[in-house]
Amino acid sequence: MGTAARIRGLRIRAGKPKGEIAQSLGLNTAWYDDLEQRDDELVSSLTLFQAMELASLLGVKLHDIFEVHSSPDEHVALVDLPARIAQHVAKEGITVEQLEEKVGWELRGFLESPVQTAAEFPIAFLQALAHSLGLDWLSFVPE
Question: What are the pLDDT tens digits along the chain (143 aa)?
Fold first, then answer.
């Protein structure tokens, strides 16, 4: 079962109408419909915090939406990621700009304000960053 079908099933199980969920997330109904119809829509359009709110509204943890049955080995706070990035850059002998090319996203804003950036960028950003750092992006999800 894909992410979209899981979201739809969890919403139905929670007995909540689409409009209520959409409004709680600050989305219009058409945008929310995409979450229930397209598997990649969640990571490409919602922020980490919106996805966590979606999970809460559905009565589950974010890991459940992605059908991950175990927690990551480590948890990494968003505020600790700039230091992790600096360590990675130093270890690999690359510049932040080279890491940005690898990640496919600008990192300057994130390095200055990781929580604010995570509140503005889609999950796809965190997935790309985590992959480049050798981390599981779900390790950024607070417990």
Answer: 899 999 999 999 999 999 999 999 999 999 999 999 999 999 999 999 999 999 999 999 998 998 876 667 789 999 999 999 999 999 999 999 999 999 999 999 999 999 999 999 999 999 999 999 999 999 998 87
Domain 3-65 grouped into CATH 3.40.50.2300: no
* Structure-token match 């990192």, residue found: 107
Residue 124 has φ and ψ, to the nearest 5°, of -55, -35
> What pTM did the predictor assign?
0.91
CATH 1.10.260.40 occupies which residues in the chain? 3-65, 78-140
